[in-house]
Amino acid sequence: MTNLFENCSYHSSYEPYFLDCTNATDPCYLIQYVDTIEVIIYWLNLVIPFILLTTGLFLNAYYLTVLLPNFIQMNDM
């Protein structure tokens, strides 16, 4: 069996996983598309948790500054 990606100008590290694909009209474009999607997923897995962590830290700090004076006043009564 010949390599499906042997005539491609772009080679990806994901090629061995797709060697058995037979329903591909343009495998060179598709393997480049898979590589692009993997890069996007990699960066989204870094950015989204960082945004959520930063938002949570700011909200916790805000609620601490709002509720701490009320808590101190409750203890003074």
TrEMBL record:
GO molecular function, one term: G protein-coupled receptor activity
Record has Lipoprotein as a keyword: no
Superkingdom field: Eukaryota
Annotated membrane topology: Multi-pass membrane protein
TM annotation in the entry: 40-64
GO cellular component, one term: plasma membrane
InterPro entries listed in its UniProt record: Put_GPCR_Chromadorea
Location in or out of the cell: Cell membrane
Keyword list, A-Z: Cell membrane, G-protein coupled receptor, Membrane, Receptor, Transducer, Transmembrane, Transmembrane helix
Alphabetical list of PANTHER family matching this protein: G-PROTEIN COUPLED RECEPTOR B0244.10-RELATED, PROTEIN CBG16518
Name of the protein in question: G-protein coupled receptors family 1 profile domain-containing protein
Native source organism of the sequence: Caenorhabditis nigoni
Biological classification of the source: Eukaryota, Metazoa, Ecdysozoa, Nematoda, Chromadorea
